[in-house]
User: Fold these one by one.
Assistant:
Number 1:
Amino acid sequence: MTYPIQGSCQCGSVKYTLLAAPQLIQACHCLECQKLSTSAFSVTAVVNASSIKFEGEMQEWRRPADSGNISAAKFCPTCGNRIYHFNPAEPDAIKLKPSTLSDTSIIKPTRHIWVSQKQHWYQIPEGVVTFEKQGA
Ligand SMILES: [Zn+2]
Ligand SMILES: [Zn+2]
């Protein structure tokens, strides 16, 4: 895979450039992520804030996370596409929603968390790390 890779929301108002490979790609099976993704799990690519450049106006929504941290979400105000999450106490770690990338072939989660809440019809692939809850 060669970087940079471009990404955008569904309507194109928010664009970004991913300059380097994510540090980690994980799937989360918690009920909040099922609601967010309208699917059985959400996928997150953890990238350093210096490795991604955003363009366009985003709106923010915050909720308390199970860990006691704040989970802040950035999304497109026009089409509603979720772009990334972050913990305001750790602003360097961008939790990108990588389904917005123009090339989604990099999205292969190696870690699955909150498998205690996963849909029974979904089978975790072999060879990935799993956690019942948030994980370390
Ligand atoms: Zn949009
Ligand atoms: Zn989750």
Note: The mean pLDDT is 95.
Number 2:
Amino acid sequence: MASTNQSPFYQRAEQEYHEATTDEERIACLEIMMKEVPKHKSSENMRKNLTNRYKKLKEGLAKRKKSGKGGQAGIKKADMQVVLTGFPNSGKSTLFNTLTGLNAKVSPHPFTTFQPQLGTFKFEEAQIQIIDTPSFPNHDKSLLNSTDTILLIIDCLEQIKESEKYIYRAPAKIILIINKIEDYVACPNQSNLQISEGNKRKIEANLKSKFKKYDYQIIDIKNPERLELEKLKEKIFGTFPVIRIYTKEPKKEPSKEPMIMKVGSTFEEAAEKILKGISKKIKRARVWGPSSKFGGQVIGLEHVLKDKDVIEFQTK
Ligand SMILES: Nc1nc2c(ncn2[C@@H]2O[C@H](COP(=O)(O)OP(=O)(O)O)[C@@H](O)[C@H]2O)c(=O)[nH]1
Ligand SMILES: [Mg+2]
């Protein structure tokens, strides 16, 4: 199909169509192409061709949906999970890639992300699961309603109020990320607000008084010097009501990666998390760290653990 004389939007959509990996993506590209293709007589065949492809894909998708095949297998929720959400083009996938080192598709076209994308990142050796999701209004309601923490990423202040109608039911803690701080021209109905280093704090204070529900972070993902990634990770970690428990074998170094337990967990629960049924076989258990009176204190199954404890036990 000759497309060199088509609009740049058409050409871009066509290129994306060929690179697409899912039918949802192909359909979205075709929609743009159908809109962009000229309506005059000479392009009649081209329009027919596009419409046919579009219809076929739509039908295939509807069939698969009906039969329950295809679609995303359920995501198994990890101990700590955070879900990215927001309006199209706010920078969700860019942040996802920055945090995980993965390569989710980033593009200036809205609705590039069609399915939840799973990744992980580490904060002080603890694994945090992060999910990139389709933008409002195609957001994944069940994910948003079941997750611990939501990262709401906006590139325009008006989007805060707009977002609320999509997430007000979610019981999660919300971290609001204001992105593209140098690029506020993106806001349609808003005066051109530039968030410079100097007035960042003022804006944060202003937001805090207006929207009490959120924790704030103002970032510019495209500008790595300014991106306080570690601070953001720490903030995310701080939203989880969990403690980190390290395990060790006698005479050996503690594990590098902690086990993640709910606040208030006992030694018995930690042991059971390592291996079901093991707590009945424990001969002697010891603890080092914040919950111990002294390093290597011998403890019983009911001992309540604290963040960063190290536990060790021997079995019968
Ligand atoms: N200026 C600027 N552009 C960004 C930033 N983050 C993402 N973008 C651009 O915004 C567009 C949409 O980004 P994407 O991550 O795909 O947004 P999503 O739809 O929310 O997943 C892309 O063209 C990105 O290159 C940022 O921090 N600053
Ligand atoms: Mg995306």
Note: The radius of gyration is 25 Å.
